[in-house]
Design a protein that fits this description.
mainly alpha, about 40% helix
Length: about 120
C-alpha cells in the first residue's frame, strides 16, 4: 500500500503439465492450447472460486475490482525477480507466451534455457 494505492501482484498459478515423451504430442499440445484459452481459464477459475489468470476479471464479481487496477500498479514476479528456482522455467515460458514475446511452440523449444 502507498499513497498512490495498492499494488497488485499478478502471479498466476499454473499447474498444467505434459509428458514430453507422449506418444501423441500434437494432440496433447492442442489440448493444452484449448485449456489456456481465456474462456476455459475463466470457467475453471469460476468453478473453483479462484481468480482468473486472464486479464478479463469481469466474469466474477468477487475479483472484478482487480481488473480496474492501473497497469502501472501491477507487478509481475518475472519483472521483479520473485521466482523460485524450481519454477523459473515454467514461469519464464508462460510469461514470454503471455506477453507475446514467444509462441507456445517457441517456449516449449526453449524450455530449460530460460534465465531470469
Amino acid at each position: 500500500m502507498s499513497e498512490e494505492g495498492a499494488t497488485f501482484l499478478d502471479m498466476s498459478n499454473l499447474q498444467f503439465s505434459v509428458n514430453k515423451n507422449s506418444s501423441n504430442m500434437e494432440m496433447t499440445n492442442e489440448f493444452m492450447r484449448f485449456l489456456i484459452t481465456s474462456r476455459e481459464l475463466n470457467e475453471m477459475a469460476q468453478n473453483k472460486g479462484l481468480m482468473s489468470p486472464t486479464k478479463d476479471l469481469s466474469f466474477n464479481s468477487m475479483y472484478a475490482a482487480f481488473g480496474a487496477v492501473p497497469e502501472s500498479r501491477v507487478l509481475s514476479p518475472e519483472e521483479i525477480g520473485l521466482t523460485d528456482d524450481a519454477v523459473i522455467q515454467l514461469r519464464q515460458a508462460v510469461y514470454n507466451v503471455g506477453t507475446g514475446v514467444m509462441t507456445i511452440d517457441e517456449a516449449i523449444a526453449g524450455y530449460g534455457t530460460f534465465t531470469q
